[in-house]
Amino acid sequence: MFKILKTEGKARRGEFSCAHGGTVQTPVFMNVGTQAAIKGGVSALDLKNVGCQIELSNTYHLHLRPGDKVVRQMGGLHKFMNWDGPILTDSGGFQVFSLASLRKIKEEGVTFASHIDGHRIFMGPEESMQIQSNLGSDIAMAFDECVENPARYEYAKASVERTLRWLQRCKVEHDRLNSLPDTVNPHQMLFGINQGATFADLRAWHMQEIAKIDCDGYAIGGLAVGEPAEIMYEMIDVVEPFAPKEKPRYLMGVGTPSNIIEAVARGVDFFDCVMPSRNGRHGKLFTWEGNVNIMNEKYITDDRPISESCSCPVCRSHSRAYLRHLFKADEVLALRLAVLHNLWFYNELMAKIREALDNGTFADFREKYSGNLEKRA
Asked: Fewest CB atoms less than 10 Å from the CB: which of 196, 252, 288, 363?
């Protein structure tokens, strides 16, 4: 399933395989299609063209619409969205954080008020596993609680203890579902999630405990939710020694190009973030020369591509002036082109990280780009 090919310091160059899509090269960025679509008018075919290896969708949102049973009836998420590569589904646990005003947490699980129409939804470990089984993703994430930051120590401690119990329940139900003769994807994997807010002792304890449960991979959740980047890096450093070496590691919801480079240096293999698509839809573009705000007046008559060092379809075909015009004219094409460029950049970033690890030059790559990619172009 997961093989480490090479290391440089704590950074790992690996290969990951699952039921769909052949072999994934890691470190890898997973493009976020929350509702089985990338926001900005990007299709599954587009994802292939920009170098995406894994697509990520959300359990809670697909449960609400069209409904996970509808997706199951349509043959699973792969057939539904016409994507033949690997898919990871988040568990719905992040909505425990993001919909804090609409939910109530108990030992059994979480009761939500739907953000669409207000109707009551209950989701616990078993329900999350059942929904993800219906979706047929390659990787199912364990149901967890992502606590707010800053959190009270006593609450964070009770939360990680409950999240551990939830993982144990997820594991039992996931194994049961995979054994059923009519399950959509009997080879679906389960990743556990490390929590603990920004308390080093809770993070370390929780990773040691969830490592005792035989999951297919382990994620670090509950970071990049407002804490300084230095604190996030500190938490990764705390967790890393206790994360099983032979299993993939996934830093959830991260992040900027610099965040990704720094987390790779600390031993992380998988990443996801809405940033490339969300920023793109607001005219914020990533380049190897730094960040471009295409709305700036200086681009009105700029006939250069977004980045002269980029070979994406957008940079090969369109000028900064044209893209700025599309945004100012509220043309939908603006969103599509900007998102395509940013997704291309993120996937190229990961390819260059892998190339540097292959060549033993990741330390030089990190020194050159980690800070510079945050600057304005």
From this structure: 363
Catalytic residues: 90, 272
Beta bridge partners of 123: 110
CATH fold group of domain 2-273: TIM Barrel (3.20.20)
CB of 238 within 8 A of CB of 203? yes
Sequence ranges of the chain with CATH classification 3.20.20.105: 2-273
43 — pLDDT class (breaks 50, 70, 90): very high
Query: Per-residue b/e over 58-95, b at no fewer than 16 CB within 10 Å?
Result: bbbbbbbeeebeebbeeebbbebbebebbbbbbbbbbb
Mean pLDDT of the chain: 96
Is residue 208 a known part of a binding site? no
For the cut 80, the answer to whether the pLDDT of residue 354 exceeds it is: yes
3-state SS assignment for residue 211: coil
To the question of whether residue 330 is assigned a binding role by annotation, the answer is no
Provide DSSP, 319-336: -HHHHHHHHHTT-HHHHH
Q: What pLDDT is stored for residue 92 in this prediction?
A: 78
For residue 367, the surrounding DSSP H or E stretch is helix 362-369
| Residue 196 annotated as binding site | no
In the block, tokens 């032979």 appear at: 246
H or E segment to which residue 6 belongs: strand 2-8
- Mean pLDDT of all residues in 148-176: 96
- Please state at what angle helix 332-359 crosses helix 362-369, rounded to 10 degrees: 140
Query: How far is Cα 299 from Cα 133, in angstroms, rounded to an integer?
Result: 48
From residue 218, how far is each of 269, 277, 358 by CA, in Å? 10, 25, 24
